[in-house]
Design a protein that fits this description.
Mean pLDDT: 75
Number of strands: 2
Order of helices and strands: HEEHHH
Helix content: 55-70%
Low-confidence stretches: 1-8
Strand order of the largest sheet: 1-2
Largest sheet: 2 strands, antiparallel
Distance between the termini: 94 Å
Shape: elongated
Strand content: 15-25%
Length: 105
C-alpha cells in the first residue's frame, strides 16, 4: 500500500506542475466582453511578446508625436553656406600634406 502511495504522489505532483507549465490563463475580449481562456505556454509567451512590442511601439509613437520637428537639413545647409568659393583640388591636397607633416613629421 505504501508503494502505491509513493508512486501516485509524484505522479499527482507532476501532473499539477505540467498543467501549470503547459497552459496559462489569458483574458481575451470577444464582442467587448472579457473571456478567460487557457492557452498553451508557447502561445502564451508569443502573446506576451506581441503585447510588449505593441506597448513599445505606443511609447515610441507617443514620444515622436510630442517631439518638436527640427529643421536639421536647413541648419546644415546654413553652416555650409559661405561667401568664399569652394577650395580647389590643389588647396585640398596642400592641406592634406600639411596635416600629414604635422601628424607624422
Amino acid at each position: 500500500m505504501d508503494d502505491e502511495k509513493r508512486v501516485n504522489e509524484p505522479t499527482a505532483t507532476y501532473l499539477a506542475l505540467t498543467e501549470q507549465i503547459v497552459s496559462r490563463p489569458v483574458i481575451l475580449e470577444r464582442a467587448g466582453k472579457p473571456v478567460l481562456v487557457l492557452v498553451p505556454y508557447d502561445e502564451y509567451r508569443r502573446l506576451q511578446r506581441i503585447e510588449m512590442d505593441a506597448r513599445a511601439r505606443q511609447q515610441v509613437s507617443a514620444q515622436t508625436a510630442t517631439r518638436p520637428k527640427r529643421n536639421t537639413l536647413e541648419k546644415a545647409w546654413g553652416l555650409l553656406a559661405t561667401e568664399r568659393p569652394a577650395p580647389s583640388d590643389a588647396e585640398i591636397e596642400q592641406w592634406l600634406r600639411e596635416h600629414r607633416m604635422e601628424k607624422y613629421g
